[in-house]
Specification:
mainly alpha; 1 helix; rod-shaped
């Protein structure tokens, strides 16, 4: 393969590229956060039922 002439990236292009990759990384974190909150909620409700704290 021949190497294509690479022009240096402008600062704005770098910032856009950084935003693109950072925004892509947030989506899995939201899913993980939701799963953790769901798990914590289920654990707490199980404790409440075992303790007899029914509404």
């Amino acid at each position: 393969m021949t190497e294509v002439n690479k022009k240096p990236m402008s600062e704005r292009e770098r910032q856009e590229l950084i935003k693109k990759f950072e925004s892509g990384n947030k989506k899995p974190n939201k899913k993980q956060n939701f799963d953790k909150l769901k798990e914590d909620y289920l654990k707490q409700t199980d404790r409440n039922y075992k303790d007899g704290d029914r509404n």
